[in-house]
Amino acid sequence: MVKNRAIALVDCNNFFVSCERAVNKDLQNRPVAVLSNNDGCIISRSEEVKKLGVQMATPLFQVRELLEKYNTAIISCNHGLYREFSDKVQNVLVEDLGDKVVELYSIDEAFLDVGTPDKLKLLGDHLKSKILKETQIPVSVGFATTKTLAKLANKIAKTSEKANGVLDLYNSPYTDLALQRTDVRNIWGVGSRYAAHLKNHGINTAYELKNTDPEQIRSYLHVFGARTVMELNGIKCLPLEITEKDNKSIAHTRTFGHTISSFCDIKNAIFYFTTRALEKMRWNNLSTKTVTVFLKTDRFNPVPYYYSNAYSYNSVYHSDITSEIYKWVTVCLEKVFRPELRYKRAGIVLSELTSVESISLRLYEQVNFERWHKLSKLIDEVNLRYGRDIIKLAALQDKGGWQSQSTFRSNDENHSTSREHLGLGKTFSKSVRFL
DNA sequence: TCTGGGGTCCTAGGACCC
DNA sequence: TCTGGGGTCCTAGGACCC
Predict the structure, then answer these.
(1) Does nucleic acid strand C have an atom less than 7 angstroms from the CB of A251?
(2) Element of type H or E holding A347
(3) How far is the CA of A210 from the C1' of C13 (A)?
(4) Domain residue limits, chain A
(5) Which nucleotide is nearest to A290 (CA to C1')?
């Protein structure tokens, strides 16, 4: 019988915090918290902050006093910096194992196909120390027969003192014991809603989930749930995705620094978001056919009422030309905008993405299209080299009052250029999903 | 007056992840 | 006072066709 191959999950510990610590030694022995785009929530916590009981995505204002009491460094996020460290970690893995076995799953995680070796603990220790030495990022490594079990192995590796960052559940007789000690909520793919369903059916631990009939689970958790049961039983349902995949959508959405109500201000913000999203799209040589615009009022202050609406424009042709897509976006905006409201959040999504080379020719304006396409690429290059929006369309005004706040940003100009929005990076630019 | 049923496509909404 | 952002996949249900 052919032995099931082992899957490893390499996951960076407290990734954003670890990046900040790598570039600022003063943060090594202090609690550190990294904030979301608008300085609103905490999205990465050092171990000390976790021990204070601060949960992921906690609003800063709720825990600010507590954090200050413990001398916590509070830092605005810097996605350009994290992207660079992500690339470094990935490069170490590819150097060590080859690019045929690495799936970059997210900015701070990679699945690996590591074959059928006996001494996985040694491999894990090796990867962990090599990555730390070459990138200064601490990682944890978990091994198992399926992605779902590798996720669990990794989670235990992170928290168990005995495991010390590396856990092999592939060559281990203790998988069932680990499952018995794991709340079903902590299984990958089981969120709070699904966990509530499962608990209603008397399924509380991962072990109980493993021993349930997948078909029964399917009736209320659908194919995802059934797949998870199989994976817990060591049956691979989620293959490694080694090859780069193009994004299916590209979005740029923001909460405003304060609410805004004028059509002109909203339109300017939407044009700005569109510009950023199109840069990323063109960087990946893609074009779009459908744009979606959404507007939302403040959900925590629903006066006169909470409003959230979206509209999609479907074009006949694919395009990557800013001026043309501004027109599509304007159509959407006119559909969703209501003058009596004050908006807190807005965004655009580009979808039905196709590579520029493969889009069909236009009947009457093909020459024009190609000219504009080249011009757009040229503007991107100039802006990348000399700074964001050095060249821009007249329709796009300077940033206005809708701008996000970023009070605690580390002083690092190199990372505030357009590059961070492009999903850049040399090796892995396409498959990267942004946090 | 009687008023099918199977297939396909599309979309809004829900759930999840990091 | 202050509450993130970028993705993916799945399903139910409606529209439409024959």
Answers:
(1) yes
(2) strand A343-351
(3) 32
(4) 1-172+410-435, 249-404
(5) B11
Q: pLDDT tens, A100-154? A: 899 999 999 999 999 998 899 999 999 999 999 999 999 999 999 999 999 999 9
Nucleotides of C under 7 A from a protein CB: 1-11
CA dist., res. A237 & res. A19, Å (int): 33
* DSSP three-state, residue A340: coil
Domain covering A249-404, topology: Dna Ligase; domain 1 (3.30.1490)
Tens-place pLDDT, residues A46-62: 999 999 999 999 999 99
**Of all helices (H) and strands (E), which one includes residue A289?**
strand A286-297
pLDDT given for residue A414 in this prediction: 41
Structure-block tokens of residue A53: 């009981």
Identify the pLDDT of residue A41.
94
How much of chain A is helix, strand and coil, in % rounded to 5? 45, 20, 35
**Integer Cα distance of A280 and A49 in angstroms:** 34
C-alpha A367 chain-centroid distance = 38
From the CA of A293, how many Å to the C1' of B7? 33
d(Cα A383, Cα A417) in Å, to the nearest integer?
9
Instruction: Round to whole Å and give the CA distance between A296 and A309.
Output: 7
DSSP character at residue A397: -
Phi then psi for residue A262, to 5 deg, are: -75, 140
Span CA (A365) to C1' (B18), Å: 42
Q: Would you call the peptide bond into A173 cis, given omega within 30 degrees of 0 as the criterion?
A: no
Nearest nucleotide (CA of A106 to C1'):
B18
pLDDT 10s digits, A306-335: 899 999 999 988 999 999 999 999 999 999
Nearest to A252 by CA among A272, A233, A235: A272
Mean of pLDDT values over A88-108? 94
Could you list the beta-strand ranges (E) of A100-227. 102-106, 109-113, 139-144, 166-168
Contact in structure between A226 and A218 (CB atoms under 8 Å): yes
Among chain A residues 114 through 143, which have CB within 7 angstroms of nucleic chain C?
Answer: none
Which nucleotides of chain B have an atom under 7 angstroms from any protein CB?
A: 11-12, 14-18
Statement: the CB of A224 is under 7 Å from strand C: yes
A1-172+410-435, CATH topology level: Alpha-Beta Plaits (3.30.70)
Distance A398 CA to B8 C1' (A): 47
Spatial distance from the CA of A296 to the C1' of C3 (Å): 14
How many angstroms separate the CA atoms of A213 and A79, rounded? 43
